[in-house]
Amino acid sequence: MESVALDNSQVTGSQRATPDADRAVASRTHGFDNARLRKDFADQGAFLYLDDFLAPEVTAQLVASARGLLDEVNRNYLPGHKQGGSVSRHTIDRLAPFIAELYRSKELIGWLEQLSGDQLMVSPADDPHAYALYYYTRPGDHIGWHYDTSYYDGRRYTLLLGVIDESTCRLDYELHTRDDSKPDLPGSVQIPPGGLVFFDGDKLRHRISPMGENEMRVSLTFEYVTDSNMRPWKRFISNMKDAIAYFGFRQVFRQLMRRSGDAA
Ligand SMILES: [Fe+2]
């Protein structure tokens, strides 16, 4: 039987009024010293961390959605590299559409464009990383050192938003690893609910450290690109990686079958 799409209030069991994503983002970003933030982003090799970014009503909405989607988490395990869970955009579209609205917020994208100096676009409809929730719910959940490599023809930016953090997990990172003119610069942050990390996926080497006992952490990531074209062989690698490491074959290839069905 097909599941029925629910709105946020039904998922969370509350009568919470869904915030207006554009207005909520603007209420924060218009008060920032954006020239300074843009300089910080550039100086740090296309990386920025803010411990307090989201408007409180947005954070509250994300926390409620993250808890409401716990039964939808797809667990994955790659020995030596990652262990954790995720909820893909396809599930988010059905059950937490506010997250999709926030992802597409013109205010948010415009502000990220100011920071990066790039014209950004949302990821194509078949990219499960466009927006996804990542769940760390069991001891040892983590992701090892990696880059958010772009398989697109252009750059791929990651926006990471803290949602729930009842954990000792940290985002460890190294700046400037792909810039020979600067020494590598290590850093580490614990991202509180409403906090933000924004970076160029090919430039920031990073990991999430393993979680301890009786802890929980949920983060939301948004992916934006500068060119949505992808060469077929890169698409194949990207799809296989997603199927194995993140979202499961059923979820990734269901989308692909739909696409090829449309094209036939
Ligand atoms: Fe990453």
UniProtKB/TrEMBL annotation:
Q: Which InterPro entries match?
A: BesD/HalB-like, Oxoglu/Fe-dep_dioxygenase_dom
Q: What is this protein called?
A: Fe2OG dioxygenase domain-containing protein
Keyword Acyltransferase part of the UniProt annotation: no
Instruction: Output the SUPFAM superfamilies linked to this UniProt entry.
Output: Clavaminate synthase-like
Family listed: Belongs to the iron/ascorbate-dependent oxidoreductase family.
Renumbered residue ranges of the record's region Disordered: 1-25
Q: What Pfam family is a match, any one? A: HalD
Query: What are the record keywords, sorted?
Result: Iron, Metal-binding, Oxidoreductase
Biased region (Polar residues) positions are 1-17
Asked whether the keyword Oxidoreductase is assigned, the reply is: yes
Q: Which residues form the Fe2OG dioxygenase domain?
A: 124-226
